[in-house]
Write a structure and sequence with these properties.
Blueprint lengths: L3 E2 L11 E4 L3 E3 L1 H11 L4 H4 L1 H7 L9 H6 L1 H8 L2 E2 L2 E14 L7 E15 L3 E12 L7 E11 L9
Parallel strand pairs: 1-4
Antiparallel strand pairs: 2-6, 3-6, 5-8, 6-7, 7-8
Length: about 160
């Protein structure tokens, strides 16, 4: 997949896998930093000894929302940039499921399939992606989501045929 595309090319990518990100290691330091930022210090995330003894996971796991928050990084890593874009906006999720826990030390990556492109108004384009966050050497993904983003652009750059 090219690193950069035009607005006019975007609708032609619907139905295609548009990117697979690099692996990201979810280590205990990242989990602890997220716990600190969100004030979520539940032991299954922040206390390796207790999590090993008292949880079914054999140690600490990442917060589900930590995994969700890394979608932007994964997207930037692998989804083609639209040349005419002046700003990108996270619009939200139609669906989001946290399927499997991500254990401390595991590596994850995102797989993005463009499922819809809809031009709105003179200077906005809504994109919808089916996203799967895979856990290395695991059969089940960490999460699946239907994610919507908005591409803003200068109205003069709007393709004529949309």
């Amino acid at each position: 997949m090219p690193r950069e595309i035009s607005l006019a090319e975007l609708p032609g990518l619907v139905g295609q896998d548009v990117g697979v990100s690099q692996w990201i290691t979810i280590d205990q330091a990242m989990i602890d930093a997220f716990a600190h930022a969100t004030h979520d210090h539940q032991f299954i995330h922040t206390d390796p000894e207790r999590a090993k003894a008292e949880s079914p996971y054999g140690g600490t796991i990442a917060h589900g929302f930590l995994t969700v928050s890394l979608l932007s990084t994964m997207n930037y890593d692998c989804v083609p940039v639209v040349r005419e874009q002046t700003m990108g906006i996270n619009y939200g999720f139609e669906a989001l499921r946290l399927i499997s826990p991500v254990r401390s030390g595991a590596r994850i990556r995102g797989r993005f399939t463009l499922t819809n492109v809809r031009f709105r108004g003179a200077a906005m384009c809504m994109t919808t992606y089916d996203v799967t966050v895979e856990i290395e050497n695991e059969q089940k993904p960490a999460l699946t989501a239907t994610w919507q983003t908005i591409i803003q652009f200068d109205p003069k750059d709007r393709p004529e045929d949309v």
